[in-house]
Amino acid sequence: MRRGQGTRDKGQGSVFVGLLVTCLWSLVSGHCYAEEPQQLAQVIPTDTPLKPTEGLDRQLSLDLRGIDVIDAIKYLAAKGDLNIATTSGVAGQVSLFLKQVTIRDALDILLLTNGLALENRGSVLMVMTEGEYEALHGFRYHDQRRVQTVALKFGNAPRVATMMEGIRSSIGRILSDEGTGTLFLVDVPERLDQMVAAIKMLDLETVTRPAPTVSEVFTLKYNRVEDVSPTLTAALTPQIGALRMDKKTNTLVIIELPHRMPEFRAMIQAFDQKTKQVFIEAQVLQVNLSDQFDVGVEWETIFKNAALNRLTLQASLPSSITSFGKIAVGTIGTDQLGAAVKALQQFGKTDVLSTPHISALDGQEATILVGTKEVYVTSTVSQGTSTATTSESVNFIDVGIKLKVTPSINDDGFVTMKIKPEVSSVARTVTTSQGNQIPVVETSTAETSVMVKDGNTIVLGGLIKDRTTLVRNQIPLFGAIPLLGTAFRFRSDQRTRTELIVFLTPHIISGEAPVGPPMERMKEFKETS
């Protein structure tokens, strides 16, 4: 028992001596920690580690003197609950005396003073040497230099680069290309801003190096220079490009940088295209409605006619003027015009009022007027000091059938027709105080858009008009006897109700060959009506 007790006392003494030696070695080597140095050995990850950046914002104070850099990293990792790994090349000692700073700032100072780099890889912060970081990414971790490209408009690139040598820092670089007038600046952000500001002051147009521009003349064949110049002007290079135009010769002169001139050639070629045209055949019919059809042509019945299998009702719109009937719009095959006129004759006598033909450019409005210009006189009295002067002016107003058509050509052979017919007549007159007769014009209008295939016909109906005519009859000889002749004279009002039908047939043309109405079809149309 005594021998075992002695052995145990001897072992405890050995442990005490070992601990004492360890403490003395720590004092000699200078490893002294101001705050909780025992935590350096407790590199135990928590059950729920924070994100790599959350613990970096914690604050702490440090008084570390000549300790190993890996021990310092372990201490910061423990304080911030961070997952930090180091490569085999990380080594050195560090002394930090910091008060109330974030772990992020302390780690940045540690990396900077020891030539180390930091990289975030998932939930782990990897500490490595500057050389290892540069081998991975191609640049140094603590390099604050940036690259900026400056394109000179007028200045000489090598000369400007030489002048910038006095502004750049010792780690900055300046490259220049005289051919394109481009400068490549590599430096810290502060020096970059200074150099860019100086370059703006030096980049002025001079006699020795004007802007490298070229000029080219374009003569437009189909479009007008005033129509395309706004678009081209907006595309010019600011402060360099210029555009000149001559309306008389329809010519454009463009001054621009050489590499941009192909762009303007393509734009002008796209704009200067031959405009498509539409040749419009119009037939205007008047149907004197019978008494049983005084409300107008029954278009639903006509469009259901078996003989007109290609007659299609497109729309039925309320009339803007008349209280009876509707504005009916439909399409029909050109070879069935005669059958359509025969179908209209069942509603009353049908007469052809006009067959005008007109050509219109794509998107341009064309107007057809079949009627008269009614004249009326207006008087103006000018009062002088002693006399009054009366002056008369003659005015004209269009009365009859006015048809406005705007075609829009599609690429698949269809034409969209915007149609606005207007039928007007003088209903009565108003007498002014000077005795002038002013006509009161009654107008019926409609407006619609219809898409039709090239060569097919659009039918527009429903333009109904009432007209009352004073009819005087007398018995020959007896009606001319003064006083007694009134017994042999008769007066009556005759009411006439008519409906106008308009047929429009568009044909897409190129303008190179002469065009005109097909004579055989026109002859058949007139004979039928």
Structural topology:
Blueprint: H1 2-29, E1 59-68, H2 69-80, E2 84-86, E3 93-102, H3 103-113, E4 116-121, E5 124-129, H4 130-137, E6 146-151, H5 157-164, E7 173-177, E8 182-187, H6 189-202, E9 214-219, H7 225-234, E10 242-246, E11 251-256, H8 261-271, E12 277-289, H9 299-303, E13 312-318, E14 326-332, H10 337-344, E15 348-354, E16 357-361, E17 366-383, E18 388-409, E19 414-431, E20 437-445, E21 448-453, E22 457-474, E23 489-509, H11 519-528
Parallel strand pairs: 2-5
Antiparallel strand pairs: 1-3, 4-5, 6-8, 7-8, 9-11, 10-11, 12-15, 12-16, 12-23, 13-14, 14-22, 17-18, 18-19, 19-20, 19-21, 22-23
Query: Helix tally?
Result: 11
Extract low-pLDDT stretches: 1-50, 313-325
Q: Approximately what portion of the residues adopt beta-strand conformation?
A: 35-45%
Rg on CA atoms, Å: 49 Å
Structural class: alpha+beta
Let me know the largest β-sheet.
7 strands, antiparallel
What share of the residues lie within helices?
Answer: 10-25%
Overall morphology: elongated
Report mean pLDDT, rounded to a whole number. 76
Number of strands: 23
- Distance from N terminus to C terminus (CA atoms, Å) equals 147 Å
Please characterize this protein's 3D structure.
The structure is a single chain. This protein is 24% helix and 42% strand. It has eleven helices and 23 strands. The strands form six sheets. Strands 12, 13, 14, 15, 16, 22 and 23 form a seven-stranded antiparallel beta sheet that branches. Helix 2 packs antiparallel against helix 3. Mean pLDDT is 76; it is low at 1-50 and 313-325.
